[in-house]
Amino acid sequence: MKILKTISDNLHWYLKLCSYCHIRRAVWYYVPGTAIACDGCVPRGCTCHEYPLDGKYSNSDPANWTQDLDELGRKFPCVEWRKFYKKNSHPL
Ligand SMILES: [Zn+2]
Ligand SMILES: [Zn+2]
User: Fold this and answer.
1) Beta-carbon count within 10 A of 84 CB
2) Do residues 40 and 46 make contact, with C-beta atoms less than 8 angstroms apart?
3) What is the pLDDT of residue 84?
4) How many whole angstroms from 11 Cα to the centroid of ligand 2?
């Protein structure tokens, strides 16, 4: 029963609280570890999201490096943070 399994997985994550504030529902999990975080506590901003404006990765000038922002203008968490619960969809 794959569908039931998916629902129970979602419920399992839904009941988890953030490892940092212990108040809000966690929506992120850290792949190399056991930490989970809500959208407000997840550490944001990481060099893995940075890219050079001029396309030259050899250019180390900090002014040349930028990173994309989410729809709220926030930096993205490190790629090692994955979102496991997104609105009413299945875990990613
Ligand atoms: Zn939190
Ligand atoms: Zn990173």
Assistant:
1) 19
2) no
3) 78
4) 28
Do both 36 and 6 map to the same domain?
yes
Together in a domain, 2 and 34:
yes
Q: From the CA of 46, how far away is ligand 2's center (Å)?
A: 5
Cα 46 from Cα 35, distance rounded (Å): 17
Instruction: Report H helices in 1-92.
Output: 2-14
Domain identity same for 66 and 91:
no
* pLDDT confidence of residue 14: 59
Cα-to-centroid distance, 19 and ligand 2 (Å): 19
Q: Which residues in the chain show pLDDT less than 50?
A: 89-92
| Structure-token pair, residue 78 | 């490190």
Strands 28-30 and 36-37: antiparallel
Give the pTM. Answer: 0.70
